[in-house]
Write a structure and sequence with these properties.
This protein is of the alpha/beta class and 311 residues long. The chain is built from eleven helices and twelve strands. A five-stranded parallel sheet has the order 8-7-9-10-12. A three-stranded parallel sheet has the order 3-4-6, with no helix packed on it. A two-stranded antiparallel ribbon has the order 1-2. α3 (43-53) crosses α11.
């Protein structure tokens, strides 16, 4: 069984600390953050990011919606905690429509969600930083790329067809430490759990979408390892739709059939691999700035409330 990480313990401890704080404290901070935006040297980039996460420009009506002051959805506890964290910055009477859980594959009217399809099908899906304890985990990788093991690693649940096909194809391949961790399955491609620290010992980390985005993508791109993945179909607050093949990651065929060839290519070109790693690391930097993350989240919600005629 996978142990409970200190990362999760810190997350829930923070919820306990913040829960009793008065809403007025958050609303005062929101005003200060928005005022500071006028003198922020990166305000244009912040505005671009807000527009990307919330692409809704036409007026709409939230009907019936949920009042954020009475917001309760403990069935999706981490989504609830993350949404409430930002809702508290706004008046309690404002209403939202939301979809928690995995990706929303299109919506007839604007909704707040964790993930959406990349492209036009996601135009009514407003991204928030939700389920952050699972999806937004970064690492401080102290192992230089050149000191890592020649090979690629992947661990995870393999219930979706793309993951099942991948593990069955590569679990026994040379230089591939690839295997599923599905509970109660006795198959050759079932392998023991590997911690993130253990996976960071490899030069290459494979990222494979499941129900929507791949959980390991954020920490993989924050590491000194090179991320391999097929072109993403879904995106979250991490802006997967803005990642470029050959610049932020190594693109694989949808069926991962070119994995061995791509590994050989980058094993023989370490400088090229390091350049991609550095650019991936730069993409991660803004998401590690807690103050910036809060400001962007508030501006995304502010635009939602303005377009719905509530502010």
């Amino acid at each position: 069984m996978q142990p409970i990480s200190s990362h999760k313990l810190r997350y829930y401890a923070r919820q306990l600390v913040e829960w009793p704080l008065p809403a007025g404290l958050f609303r005062a901070r929101r005003a200060a953050l928005v005022r500071a935006l006028d003198i922020d040297p990166e305000r244009a980039l912040i505005r671009e990011r807000v527009a990307y996460c919330n692409p809704v420009d036409a007026p709409f009506e939230v009907a019936p919606g949920t009042r954020i002051g009475g917001f309760r959805d403990l069935e999706h506890s981490t989504y609830f905690f993350d949404a409430r964290r930002y809702f508290r910055y706004f008046p309690a009477h404002l209403r939202v429509d939301y979809r928690f859980g995995d990706h929303v594959d299109g919506a007839p009217s604007p909704v707040l969600t964790k993930a959406r399809p990349i492209g036009n099908r996601g135009r009514n899906c407003v991204l928030l930083k939700l389920n952050r304890v699972r999806h937004f985990r970064f690492v401080n990788d102290r192992i230089p790329y050149g000191k890592k093991r020649d090979g690629i690693v992947w661990r995870g649940l393999a219930y979706r067809p793309q993951r099942q096909a991948m593990v069955r194809r590569f679990y026994a391949e040379p230089r591939c430490n690839i295997g599923q961790t599905n509970p109660n399955e006795d198959v050759p491609w079932q392998k023991p759990f590997l911690s993130i620290r253990e996976q960071l010992g490899y030069k290459f980390i494979l990222s494979v979408e499941g129900n929507d985005v791949a959980t390991n993508l954020k920490w993989a791109m924050a590491s000194n390892s090179l991320c391999f993945m097929a072109r993403p179909r879904y995106e979250t607050w991490f802006l997967e739709g803005q990642l470029r093949a050959g610049e932020h990651y190594v693109e694989l065929a949808p069926d991962h059939s070119d994995l061995p060839d791509k590994m050989e290519h980058y094993l023989s070109r370490p400088d090229e691999a390091r350049q991609i790693v550095r650019r991936a690391n730069r993409h991660v930097v803004p998401f590690r700035d807690e103050r910036r993350e809060t400001l962007v989240s508030l501006l995304v919600l502010e635009k939602y409330f303005e377009r719905s005629g509530q502010l």
